[in-house]
Amino acid sequence: MRSSRDAWCLVLGVVSVGGGRLVGVRYREFWDLVDDVLGRAQGRVMVAELVVGGLDGRTAQQALDDGVDPRDVWHALCDELDVPDPQRWGTDVHRQAPPRR
To answer: What pTM value is reported for the model?
Structure first.
């Protein structure tokens, strides 16, 4: 049985790591970019069904489920789809592009 803290971690999109410390993962930003850059319907289908070579032959959804950082998944998905760098960050002029690792 999960604790209420664990349940809220799932809702808030954070994971618990050693010592009970919380580390934010930017799933919300990932999905915002998917919707903005690829379109809500088409983007969701691509995340679920497109096998991405840069993710070791997994879909973006499988990679996220396996714990791959959303930033790395986003870059791999954009590389696979040949999305130019200036278009990868959507229409929000205040959104800063996260660097590759």
So the answer is: 0.71
